[in-house]
Specification:
Layout (H helix, E strand, L loop, with lengths): L5 E4 L5 H12 L16 E7 L5 E8 L2 E4 L2 E4 L2 E7 L8 H15 L4 E4 L5 H4 L4 E12 L13 E4 L5 H12 L3 E4 L7 H5 L7 E7 L2 E9 L9 E9 L2 H12 L7 E5 L16 E12 L2 H7 L8 E8 L8 E8 L2 E6 L6 E4 H8 L5 H6 L3 E3 L23
Parallel strand pairs: 13-14, 16-19
Antiparallel strand pairs: 1-2, 2-3, 3-6, 4-5, 4-10, 7-15, 8-14, 8-15, 9-11, 11-12, 12-13, 16-17, 17-18, 19-20
GO molecular function: aminoglycoside N-acetyltransferase activity
InterPro entries: Acetyltransf_17, Acetyltransferase_Eis, Acyl_CoA_acyltransferase, Eis_dom, GNAT_dom, SCP2_sterol-bd_dom_sf
GO biological process, one term: aminoglycoside antibiotic catabolic process
């Protein structure tokens, strides 16, 4: 069946069948969605079809950007992959993802991330696990309270505050690795909405300038099982973080549990009793390059790191990535140049993904069979891993 599966962009006429396929895969409400009459900006929908025109699978390329050490890198983040039950195990998903990668490459994407329901098929297509998005629960009563700081103002937010909220998020996210920029067509509505996209918004200001915020959903009830879900909580100062944690603590009488996803090592995490945290949900996420030259050139690199390394890369789904390359890193930038001949280091695309995202070391990638060294030290490819581990906070 994979040999006859034809992959193309979905038209509006295909969307009902594609939705039905997704409903069967993910258990959507059987009530059909409103009829879509215009193409949505910021994404590309792909479908795989048999010779009769029947849809066999679908996938969506989300036109995101990801922050990588101060630079916004164009991404093709993958969502809504579903294959009809009768077509599973026959190469339809591989054909879909191959077509998606080619389309993403043609439109200029550099990297790709996804949240898998099952990992093995995506590994077979070159993605690998780069991190885990963990949602934790904390007892509200365990959160520290403190005397409010006189130089800070705490108030409820309104839709008019959403642009300032987006700017504060960008201030904190841009120097990290992997976080979405939350810019572009898929996010424009979040900063121009007439209503808040969550139940409440708590702001902390200093001299009229936003220095922290928490966006939250109240949930239902006020008994022992009540949960306050914090969609975002960020601060640019320790005092602002303490104010926000104090506000969350004030919910203890009606919401015994606070649920949130933390930004590793940030100001808010430094104020929380993490020993009391219990994991609510753990969602692995996967990464791969769409175009290795763009992925290397578009991102920022540690300013103190310098060096060169040559390696041969194999990418069965994206042949433009396959070949022998020289990586040169210096002064906060890097370049990948195609060279002739072979190299002593042979890297798979999964190995590239693990190193680029900072999820592993070259020695560990070699131990996993994703890097083969012929008379060379595999640790030379730690140059590709410079910059630290990536993280995702937005599920898609």
């Amino acid at each position: 069946m994979s040999a006859t599966a034809h992959v193309r962009e979905l038209t509006l006429d295909n969307l009902t069948d594609a939705w039905q396929l997704g409903r069967h895969a993910f258990g959507f409400d059987p009530q059909p969605p409103p009829q879509v009459t215009v193409a949505l900006p910021g994404l590309t929908r792909y479908g795989a079809f048999d010779a009769t025109g029947r849809i066999l699978g679908r996938a969506v390329d989300l036109h995101h950007e990801q922050w990588w050490s101060g630079r916004a890198v164009p991404a093709a983040d993958v969502a809504s992959v579903a294959v009809a039950p009768e077509a599973r195990g026959r190469g339809v998903a591989r054909a879909l993802l191959t077509g998606l990668l080619r389309g993403a490459h043609d439109r200029g994407a550099a990297v790709s991330a996804l949240f898998p329901t099952v990992i093995a098929p995506y590994r077979a297509c070159g993605w690998d696990v780069a991190g885990v998005m963990r949602t934790v629960d904390l007892p509200t009563v365990a959160l520290p309270r403190h005397r409010p700081a006189a130089h800070l103002t705490v108030r409820g937010g309104t839709p008019a505050d959403l642009p300032a909220v987006a700017a504060l998020y960008e201030r904190l996210a841009r120097d990290r690795r992997g976080l979405l920029t939350r810019r572009g067509a898929l996010f424009d509505a979040h900063t121009t909405a007439d209503t808040l996209p969550f139940d409440g918004l708590t702001l902390v200001e200093e001299d009229g300038r936003l220095v922290g915020y928490a966006a939250w959903d109240r949930g239902r009830g006020y008994g022992d099982d009540a949960v306050l879900t914090v969609e975002d909580v960020f601060a640019t100062t320790a005092d602002a973080a303490r104010e926000l944690v104090g506000v969350l603590a004030s919910w203890h009488s009606v919401a015994p549990k606070v649920r949130l996803c933390l930004l590793d090592g940030d100001a808010v995490s430094a104020q929380l009793p993490l020993e009391a945290a219990r994991e609510h949900e753990s969602q692995p996420w996967m990464h791969r390059p769409v175009d290795v030259t763009r992925a290397v050139a578009a991102r920022g690199w540690p300013a103190h790191v310098r060096g060169t390394v040559e390696f041969h890369l194999t990418d069965p789904l994206a042949d433009w990535n396959t070949g022998t390359w020289r990586l040169a890193v210096a002064d906060g930038s890097a370049e990948l140049t195609r060279i002739s001949g072979d190299a002593d280091l042979h890297l798979t695309v999964r190995g590239f993904a693990l190193l680029y995202s900072g999820a592993s070391t070259a020695a560990s990638v070699a131990d996993a069979g994703l890097l083969h060294a012929v008379g060379a030290d595999p640790r030379a490819l730690d140059l590709l891993a410079a910059g630290g581990a990536a993280q995702l906070l937005d599920y898609f």
